[in-house]
Amino acid sequence: MEFAFTEEHLMIRDSAGRFLAQASDSHAVRAAMMRPDGHDPDVWQRIGQELFWPALMVPERFGGMGLGFVELAILMEQSGRFLLGSPLFATACLATPALLMGHNEALQTQWLEAIASGNTRATLAFASVAGLEADSLQAVAEPQGDGWTVSGHYAQVIDGACADLLIIAARAPGSHGAQGIHLFALPGTAPGVIATPLPTLDQTRRLARIDLHQVQVSAAQQLCGPDQGWAVLRDTLLIAAIGLAAEQTGGAQQALDLTLAYIAERRQFKRTIASFQAIKHRCADMMLYVECARSAAYYAACVAQERLAPDGDANVAKELELAAATAKIHASEVFFLCAAESIQLHGGVGFTWEYDPHLYFKRARASEQMLGNPALHRERIAGHLLGDSA
Question: What UniProt keywords are attached to this protein's entry (predicted)?
Fold first, then answer.
């Protein structure tokens, strides 16, 4: 595959970079970290109602811009560069793909229009325990009348405490594995829904525990039935992992850029340390790794775009899983490496609160574990190669 940015792609990238350089600079990031919801509502309003980023991938018939996942990946890379604290990732990379691949036109109309308007923050809650496999889902949907009663909990829901829309996964009583999984869409303030913010290593992204106590769900709120629920949930998580890989790539690039700016000013032995051959080698290695991660992320974004297309091929599941795993492995490891190298090459000030490398280091370590760590994705790739995939 030959991939190159079009003029439209470059315009999206450059305009996003200019906006975030002002709205999410170091001072703004640190201010957002101190807020209970982890983001500045004024910045989020501008993102949703002036820049229309949540609407980017929403089809035009629902009031969106009708663009693809590659364009969203460009935005995610820029948001990763500037450690943007906002519900953008949860809304655009988790909730929106689930709605797009769902099978309830009325829910799509209701919620995709709300997301496109910039007024709705959304997320996906799926796992009760750590993991991405179907067995990590333990919430149960008991049939009751024309609907269901859902009880259980979800761990580490991204922006779960501030979400206006919750897409939840729950399984039929007595079901196991990939069988009997439903997807429902309900307001974040629905009776019986309790969101508890969690303390996290990465203060630039908020996580929450979601508890459901006898939550009443109607048939009109069912996004996918048990015959399609796992396929939609699985592909949604893979697409979100690709979006996260693009974000991690942006973070890695910024960690490198911060390092290059610092070593160009720091002087030892009457010259800048950027002139030292050993420093040059380390920076060159970082650049090579970032480019490899970027290539993997955008290849995976192209596969995700094919899956999300209106006439998309649902049979690309295997290619999507391999592409997502490859992108997440490269991006996770490269981001952590670049963030660690940035601290090292900043010397004695690298780990201090006043400098930014520690913010990228924390984001790198936290996002490495999110939506599957490299070891888990390597197991998936090995399973495909050895013919032992579930």
Answer: FAD, Flavoprotein, Oxidoreductase
